[in-house]
Amino acid sequence: MSSRGGPRAAGTDGSDFQHRERVASHYQMSVTLKSEIKKLIYTHVGIWLLLLAQMCVGHLKLLPHDQVAMPYQWEYPYLLSILPSLLGLLSFPRNNISYLVLSMISTGLFSVAPLIYGAMEMFPMAQQLYRHGKAYRFIFGFSAVSVMYLVVVVAAQVHGWQLYYSKKLLDSWFTSTQEKKKK
Fold first, then answer.
1. Does some domain include residue 1?
2. Mean pLDDT in residue range 39-68
3. Coiled coil where (predicted)?
């Protein structure tokens, strides 16, 4: 080949080694999936902060109740949904499979379950709003049930994609673990 200061081998420009410099696909997949999951976690933290702000404003009565309604019951257990996101972030530096599995299980328990309960809790109020056009709770002039259903739909998508990418990341890590055992 070639050396830093010495002559090059005849017939080569020194770039014929690049075919051997590829990164294994499961490592590339791991980096990509970690990036996607981090984006989803940051989106989740944004939703979480909005709900926390709404709860603080409602309970501390910083604004009148006709501007910001008191929180629904499902919002309280949803505050625990920050824990699975933190576990997910902790699993990334050393590809810790245990933390990622705990994150996935607790996402179902602390994130998805409160969202399902919230959709059921708010359904009668949404039905009343749809049938009769009457809303009794408001958030800055908008029907609270409409705003919160929007939050539920967005949060469900965020957590769904987070679980999907976490499963693919887990599979990627198992692939790399199996290859290490073969060597």
1. no
2. 92
3. none
Return d(Cα 165, Cα 177) in angstroms, integer: 18
Q: What is the Cα–Cα distance from 138 to 157, expressed in whole angstroms?
A: 24
- Encoded amino acid at 3, one letter: S
CA 171/CA 183 separation, integer angstroms: 19
DSSP assigned state of 64: -
Query: Is residue 155 in a domain?
Result: yes
Q: Quick check: is 9 in a domain? A: no
The parent domain of residue 152 ranges over 63-182
Q: In 10 A of CB 14, how many CB atoms? A: 11
d(C-alpha 114, C-alpha 121), whole Å:
10
Which residues sit opposite 68 in a β-bridge?
Answer: 139
Q: How many independent structural domains does the chain possess?
A: 1
Please state, in angstroms and as integers, the Cα–Cα distance from residue 136 to each residue in 126, 141, 143, following that order.
Answer: 11, 11, 8
pTM (whole model) above 0.85? no
The answer as to whether 134 is a domain residue is yes
- pLDDT tens for residues 125-134? 999 988 988 8
Going by pLDDT thresholds of 50, 70 and 90, the confidence category of residue 85 is very high
